[in-house]
């Protein structure tokens, strides 16, 4: 077998339907919604029956005022070479993502150098550890 005499397996290829050449239905069948121009089936449409996403019970509560914090431990702050830590410096250092709007400092790890911290929230243990190392803590709304 060589390239010039290879053929596809019988039945694996079919001719393309030539739409709109003669018969008035153009391959769409006779009547009905699907035969009309401009028809597009909506996602989840079940022929007028109540769709599945409406039949299933809704669970839980989504709070629209929820604030999501990105969390950072003081052990990670120790590795950074900054005298002042805030949201902008951490974004520049690519420690946290640019999409993060709020920052919370937690007290896991040990802090050996004095760091000034500006964060949305600071846990009590983190605050004590930062002040013990000689740093200051300022809680902001951002």
């Amino acid at each position: 077998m060589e390239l010039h005499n290879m053929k596809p397996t019988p039945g694996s290829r079919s001719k393309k339907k030539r739409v709109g050449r003669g018969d008035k239905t153009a391959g769409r069948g006779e009547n009905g919604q699907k035969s009309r121009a401009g028809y597009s089936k909506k996602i989840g449409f079940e022929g007028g029956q109540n769709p599945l996403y409406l039949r299933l019970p809704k669970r839980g509560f989504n709070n629209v005022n929820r604030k999501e914090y990105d969390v950072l431990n003081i052990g990670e702050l120790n590795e950074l070479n900054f005298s002042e830590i805030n949201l902008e410096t951490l974004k520049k250092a690519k420690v946290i993502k640019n999409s993060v709007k709020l920052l919370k400092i937690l007290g896991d790890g040990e802090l050996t150098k004095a760091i000034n911290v500006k964060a949305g929230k600071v846990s009590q243990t983190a605050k004590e550890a930062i002040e013990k190392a000689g740093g200051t803590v300022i809680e902001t709304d951002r």
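The chain has a mean pLDDT of 88. The helical segments are 52-55, 74-79, 87-92, 124-132.
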